Each structure stands twice: as structure tokens, then as C-alpha cells.
Amino acid sequence: MALKSAALGTCGLTPGEFTGPAAHDICGLASRLSSAHPVTAEQRRGQQLPFPAGDLAWLQQAYLAARYPNASRGQIPAHRYSSEDAARALIQAQLLLAWTRSLEDLPDPGAASGRRRPREEQEDDDADMQAGSPRRPRPADPPSARPGAPELQGSAVRPTLPTPAPQHALHSDAAAAAPPLPPPPAPPRPSLPFAPPARGALPDASDGE
């Protein structure tokens, strides 16, 4: 528990290490911590466990047998260990607790020794800029991670489809290709039912009646 608490407070734990079946696998966690790539001196000191991995495996087995007695091959846990074993487990637990109290930092369990983390690359770039030397070349990103690159699915490459033209562009192209329409014919002028009187002529009296 002290080892898992130290990892949780410094480098963190994966969901499987925190709640899954690997939550009690402190030997696997210690193995990943010892094979991780430390960045600082505090992380290198944190990799030095207070006892060998064999003693840690024995302590893990004793803890699981005491917590889950039904899974201990039909034996009573109190009959499997003697008073000397109890004293050994107590000494190992005290050493582990003292190690966690003096712990400052732990390396990331998921960081392999051959892959440099972004934090370390940034620190190297800052140191190079202060020294006046050019930046170190970084490995190129895979084609699928580059912006604008075609997506990969298996071994086939899916080409990028052309973007359809907007609707207003289609209407303007169709109007430019069609011939101009003739102007509509003028409406016929209406004919008058009678001729208008001549200017200056007086109307007849019979017309008024």
C-alpha cells in the first residue's frame, strides 16, 4: 500500500493498476518503475527500493493470503507463516514506509528507456538555446499524424474527395452558359370607339340630350 500510495502521489497510476486485477500487483509496478527512464536525480533515487524484488514478491503473497484466505489453496494463512515470518514482514513494511517518507519523485512507469518524453525534449531545447547551439532534430511524425495527410486504414490509403462547389456558383455557371432570352413583345394599343372632336368645335345640343 505504501508503494502504491507513493506512485499515486508522484507519477500516477493507470486505471488497471488502481482498480483492476493488477491493483495488488506491486511486483509488476516495482518492475516497471525500475525499468522506466528517469529524468531527474530525484527519480533515479526513487528507483532504488529498500529490499530486493524477491522479498517484495514474498510480502505481496503474504498480504494476499491474509486478505483472501479462500484463495490460499485451502490452507489457513496463520498456519502458513511462523513468528519469524511475521517479524520479517514487519521489518520489510517499516523499510518500505521509510522509503516512501523520504521519496521525492518517481519516473513515469509507462516511459520506456528508448523514447524521450516531451518534457525532457523541451528541457534539452532550452539548454541548447541558452548555450547558443542549434536545436536537435526530432523524429518526423508518421504520415497519419500530419495535418492534411490521407487517413490510413489497414494497408489502403483513402484519397481525399474533392469539395463540392457551392450552390450560388452552380447557378452562375448555368446562367452564363444559357443563351440570352428575346425581349417580350409589346402589348397592342387599344383602339378608341369614336374620334375625338376637333379642337375649338362646340358640342352639338343633341349630344347633351
From TrEMBL:
Native species: Polarella glacialis
Low complexity biased stretches: 166-178
Protein name per UniProt: Uncharacterized protein
Biased composition (Pro residues): 179-196
Region (Disordered): 105-209
